[in-house]
Design goal:
This protein is an alpha+beta fold. It has helices at about 10-15, 60-75, 115-120, 130-140; strands spanning about 25, 30-35, 45-50, 80-85, 100-105. The protein has four helices and five strands.
């Protein structure tokens, strides 16, 4: 288990066993447990056993362990449809400063994560020149 855990972090305390959880799946680098305020049956948190505030702070070896776990947990919910949600920063609706992924089963329109295109996904048509400039800017940062 990682020694890179924070003393006052809720999720680090769960990893350490200081705070109990309903464990669903675990490896040496990640832990999956049921959300205590689920929006659907089987709503699960998948976290690395490494304290990182955001995805970009997380070492790749821990991120690599989370991906396969997300698939296993999604299958374990028994739901054919589901959302995988991961937020970074307060503006992006992150409430606990420890990287975490929600696996949220979607069995009915009002079950789980409720999104509508009109309310939650305001799309716009971007000019090709703008897209090209953004792509180049992003590639330069890789």
């Amino acid at each position: 288990m990682s020694t890179h855990l924070e003393e006052n972090c809720l999720f680090c305390k769960i990893v350490q066993g200081v705070i109990p959880c309903f464990k669903v799946y675990e490896t040496d680098k990640m832990l999956a447990f049921l959300d205590i305020s689920p929006v659907a049956e089987g709503h699960t948190q998948v976290i690395p056993k490494y304290h990182a505030k955001t995805l970009t702070d997380l070492p790749d070896e821990y991120l690599a362990a989370v991906g396969p776990a997300l698939k296993k947990v999604a299958l374990a919910t028994g739901a054919e449809q589901y959302n995988i949600l991961q937020n970074n920063g307060k503006l992006a609706f992150q409430h606990i400063d420890h990287v975490h992924f929600h696996v949220i089963p979607k069995r009915a329109p009002k079950d789980g994560l409720v999104l509508t295109v009109d309310d939650n996904w305001v799309a716009r048509q971007a000019p090709k020149e703008e897209l090209a400039a953004v792509a180049e800017k992003m590639k330069s940062r890789l």
